[in-house]
Amino acid sequence: MSKKSNDFIDFRRQLRLISEDRRNFRGNQAILDMRANSVDSSEEEDGPDISYYERFSFLVNGDVNQVPYFTNFLFAQSEQQIIEAFKSLPNLILFLKNCFLAGSENDTLLFHSMMLILIIQSLDVDLSPFCDPAVFALIFRNLQYYNVMIRIYSLTMITNLIIDYPQIYESLSEAHFLDILMNLLVFEDRDGKSEKSELPYRAKESLFFELANAIATIAKLKIFKPEDCPKLWDISVMFINDGDFSDSIEKSIGVLGILASAGFVQQFPQNIMEYFASCVLDGISILKSFIFFLKNMGIEFFKELLQYDLLENIILVISNDVKENGQVIYQFLGEIQFHTYDENFIFSTLDLLDKGRFQTRVNIIYYLSRILTSTSTKLIQNLIEYDILFCIEELLSVDDSEVSVVCLTFLEIFFNTFKSASSQKITEIPNADVILSQITDIISTISDEVDEQINRILALAA
């Protein structure tokens, strides 16, 4: 089965974080206090040495009043202990389903039954009995409930069901699931008045995370219909426009990329275009998601972003080569064969050949091998002045086959281009003799194809 949105430990940790804002939530304070107490138990303790079957045999007999106590007890146990509990209580799944449905009339029962279901969903237990129209109907009601906690857990629950049973999306779609998600931030109070509430930070973060995870799941599984695309697009743009939570933004940009790959693209407002041009400055997860999005949007969209200072922001990233953002950028620029005459970019790149992180330097070599042509006379001269072959020598000395292949590919292109653009001999390039000797030692160490490439390089220098 697929990995759920929360694994066992992270789920309990998330509840603890949310509980910090519990006094700000609308809902039953006793429920929230009970939840807070349940997650305070140590995750390292083995728990009491008692028989699960004897302690919770009442569940088989349908005593729903004991469900809150069972919830608290399970939160104090290890994953293995909970699995053992389910072996002792084979009827627990059907019982929890009935408790969940009965929770439509009882908030306490609803809350704790959902807590138990979410614990079970993190343990790869068969929950196919929950793929039921009555369950879906109650989840849909919960997603419009005035209590934000109920909304969060209901959304987590339905997303996990979609992950394990993608076929249920057909029924959810017919019931206007995405329309409900689009209104997830609108709350009705007990008097029936609708409002877009200002939620406590933790609650908003959790709600946004689960909503982003839901649409990302639908997109990644590619179970959406053509008529769903505008709604998925609008929800994703909403997350980016909100700009508060990086996890939600990362997933949303990825969803836009999947929609673009399916042929659905809409015009972006100017503020979103400005964000796209600056998001290369954000964390690596957002950058990778953005690059996936760019690949699916196409080169023309990339060129359009250059009008919004994208190149200037790229230069800022590569000039401060302290994380892997720079190497990811050069990999992408090489893939699209991006060439520019911008001197700041060129000299920042050349400077990194000497001072950059190892993998950044490798990816720069890859990038250069993708843009060198017979007309790159000035760039070739710049590379020679920056002692490019000394950089290649250092990279080859690491004795990494993948790095060697990147360097050899560059050398073949570089020498070919140099030979066609200059009357000088390749051996006159500084450090050429050292490189030629070095690559000779690589023969018979990687593959026959690499040996053939080395022989071609040596022939160019002969």
UniProtKB/TrEMBL annotation:
Gene3D superfamilies: Leucine-rich Repeat Variant. This is SPIN90/Ldb17 leucine-rich domain-containing protein. It comes from Tritrichomonas foetus. The lineage of its organism: Eukaryota, Metamonada, Parabasalia, Tritrichomonadida, Tritrichomonadidae.
